[in-house]
Amino acid sequence: MRRGLALGGGGVTGIAWETGLLLGLQDLGVDVTVADAVVGTSAGSVVGAQLTTGISLSDLFAYQVSQPRPAPLARISPVVLWGFARALLRARGDLEAFGRHVGAWSARRADAGRLPSLESRFDAIRERLPVQEWGPGGRLQVTAVEVETGALRVFDGSDGVPLVAAVAASCAVPGVYPPVPIQGRQYVDGGARSGSNADLVADCDRVLAFTPVDRAVGPLRSAGQLLGDVPHLVVSPDADSVRAIGKNVLDPARRAASARAGRAQAAAVAPLAREIWA
């Protein structure tokens, strides 16, 4: 039996919530870290990279509940939401057209100096990845969207792209962080194609999908829609986790509460996850 794990996007708090949920499940005897295939999108690419490079969940959790270092506070502002909405309207239901429009808009904002520098973004990603080389076995797939074409790009370490660059691209939230140049192309957040990109593990026999933000908007599809008839379980934040996460998913100050809420939520998730995973 081949088991797949889809780790979705959801900002800084999404990383924390997924980490807490994974540790809580492991504490209850459901070890998701042994997945045969892992797809990571945005926040999920960070967690997926951490898991597949051998960092223990207890160490990852300890980092999430530690005091974050001072840094400029990012947020998904009304301007960013308007940029997304405008791209959706212009795309007219075409998923790749949406990726092109939102990617080009983000590139223009970066060129105008309205977004953080690439150097600062790479520094932030390096801080989150204690091991910065791809893990063994080729288990991890990191998703991003190419600005010029709007097409999905999947990084897995086989094409010479460094792990840090792949994760930075997957985390390049349009309008918030600059597109990331890789091999002569520019890339934005894999969430511009799907919050989970769970269809990349739909060839597995069983799938667990942890999705801090799992929405079907316009041409974007939810994890459940992408997985179809594959036996699967999709887990999103419960009411307590939503309160812990708060209104700004990019706020490091909400990291510890989000991690603890994810760990607590594992108690309700474990029986269903065990049924799928075992």
From TrEMBL:
Keywords: Hydrolase, Lipid degradation, Lipid metabolism. A motif (GXGXXG) lies at residues 9-14. Transmembrane segments: none annotated. Residues 5-205 form the PNPLA domain. GO terms for biological process: lipid catabolic process. A motif (DGA/G) lies at residues 189-191. InterPro entries: Acyl_Trfase/lysoPLipase, PNPLA_dom. The active site is at S42, D189. It holds the Pfam family Patatin. A motif (GXSXG) lies at residues 40-44. GO terms for molecular function: hydrolase activity. This is Patatin-like phospholipase family protein. It comes from Nocardioides agri.
